[in-house]
Amino acid sequence: MKIGYGQFKPVFGEVAHNLDRVSRALAKVRCDLMVLPELFASGYQFVSKSEVRDLSEPVPDGQTTARLCELARARRMHIVAGLPERDGNRCYNSAVVVGPDGVLGCYRKTHLFFEETKFFSPGDSGFRVWDIGAARIGVMVCFDWFYPESARTLALKGADIICHPSNLVLPYCPDSMPTRCLENRVFSITANRIGSEARGGKNRLTYIGNSEIVGPRGKILKRAPEKREQVAVVTIDPTEARDKSLNRYNDLLRDRRPDCYRR
Ligand code: ACM
Q1: Which of the chain's termini has less CB crowding within 10 Å, N or C?
Q2: Cβ–ligand 1 contact at 167 (below 6 Å)
Q3: Rounded to the nearest 5°, which phi and psi values hold at 46?
Q4: Residue 241: HSE in the Cβ half-sphere, 13 Å Cα cutoff
């Protein structure tokens, strides 16, 4: 199975332009699963609720989901990508999962970071896993990684690969995902953006690049540069994530002691 990430530098608010650039960058890419960053076509640093509302799209009926579906159909791949989702009066920081036959579903970010808490509603989808044939994929978005419960929940729900659209600004995630993968024996694909935004007089946010694919034994299989766009694909065997046995006596998930974890 071939899995990859696209690391890009979107222009805030220029959704059609950003979609065109990503479509061109993926036009010749061959893979089964491609992960794109959080809010990959809208940009990240919103300055008002009305701006969020204007750039948010219904799923599955918005232009971003439509373009992703076109791309997935043309390239015969599955894509996981972040977008601002509007549902009635609420906006969510979401990620859609699409494949050659259309939309599989949508995940709404559970743990909102920093000013996202002013602009988005906390996700109500729960952590979800989809079977795409070659593997079972789970989704979490950016800051969700900081809560080990996110990756654990996806592993308990059967994810082989954690797809992780991100707009990372703190430096810790790239060196932490190997631990998330090791402790759950799963693959992960973190797709981050590059560049910076300083909109409406706000402090500049600099995105750290370093998108990454990690294997179930904690090995970094591919890492992107900090400041350059990159599309990368690696070949994996997703069934490596299904054997949770550590040794003759220990099985990663079976040996959990949930009764000891209660407060
Ligand atoms: C983040 O959750 N975008 C840091």
Answers
A1: C
A2: yes
A3: -75, 150
A4: 30
Nearest Cα to Cα of residue 206 among 169, 171, 165: 169
* pTM as predicted: 0.98
Protein residue whose Cα sits closest to atom 2 of ligand 1: 143
Q: Which residue type sits at 88?
A: G
The answer to whether 77 touches 32, Cβ cutoff 8 Å, is yes
Residue 14: C-alpha distances to residues 3, 55, 64, 75 (Å): 27, 10, 12, 24
Q: Is 169 in the pocket of ligand 1 (CB under 6 A)?
A: yes
Closest CA to 8 of 192, 206, 188: 192
Please give the chain's pLDDT, 263 residues, in tens: 999 999 999 999 999 999 999 999 999 999 999 999 999 999 999 999 999 999 999 999 999 999 999 999 999 999 999 999 999 999 999 999 999 999 999 999 999 999 999 999 999 999 999 999 999 999 999 999 999 999 999 999 999 999 999 999 999 999 999 999 999 999 999 999 999 999 999 999 999 999 999 999 999 999 999 999 999 999 999 999 999 999 999 999 999 999 999 99
Query: Known catalytic residue: 219?
Result: no
- CA separation, residue 156 to residues 109, 149, 153, 214 (Å): 18, 10, 5, 18
- Token pair, residue 136, equals 């079972």
Q: What is the dihedral of CA 26, 232, 94, 71, to 10 degrees?
A: 20
Q: Is the CB of 173 under 6 A from ligand 1?
A: no
